[in-house]
Amino acid sequence: MSNVLSGAQATVHAPETIRDIEYSRPSGVSLRLDASLPGGSQLTPAVVIVHGGGWVAGDRRIDVQPLFKPLTDAGFAWFSISYRLATNVAQFGVAIDDVEAAVRYVKEHAAEFHVDPDKVALIGESAGGQLAAMAALRATSDCSVRAVVALYTPSDLVSLVKTSDYIPAQIRNSIRGTPWEKLILAGLAQLSPIDNVRRNMPPFLLIHGTADSLVPFRQSQEMCDRMKNAGASCEVYPVEGGGHGIRWWESSPRLASGYKRKMIAWLRTELEENTGAVMSGTSAGFKPRAG
What we know:
With 291 residues, the protein is of the alpha/beta class. 34% of the residues lie in helices and 19% in strands. The protein has a single domain (16-271), classed as Alpha/Beta hydrolase fold, catalytic domain (Rossmann fold), CATH 3.40.50.1820. The termini are far apart.
């Protein structure tokens, strides 16, 4: 049976792009996503993309733009999301709720999107990788995912806050030398994927540049080791000589092409089962609600 992940399709459909779909409104804040839908009658796997930016910045269209074409060419539906940025320390971590809400929204609207709600993956880069990982690790059944691709992800925030300038200055300064240091570090451990590994977590592909000076490559190695020790499935793909950021990797065809091939091949392996199912009935296409 032909399916979207087996290679060439019998009929090629131009993908449909829909922008500015409101997926959640926590405390009156309108959170939006952009969608790319392959079209056709087959259910397709879906990927929710979470941009980076040190939790305090970033853009769903610019920072993760290099991921769009390979996912589209592979026949995946993808949804690139915005989320609440950590404008103060008290907001650090709330964006995990937003990632969960985005996954939940995609699954609730699966029929309109022509996607298989049981074949949803998360991709996160940098801080977005931490958010995606934590959303997958603590997910309930309505927002669970089948797989996670985490690119140069800060998986051990406690280590980073002590050793790396990647942690935003306002968060770093709130910790050093204060009587609340232990309490804050304990809170960071609760938000660290490496400290929340569990046996039945979804499989992870950790893509990381070996020359990353912001989030050390060893963070992904240690995360994968912790997962394997817990009986979970994990793979590390090293981008040899790569620094921090897929947009930086785009300057080198060698860096850019290798990880994209690996990402697509890995997602195909993790999501290929039963993705050839044809939806019953027809759909007139997705109509996003007004925001």
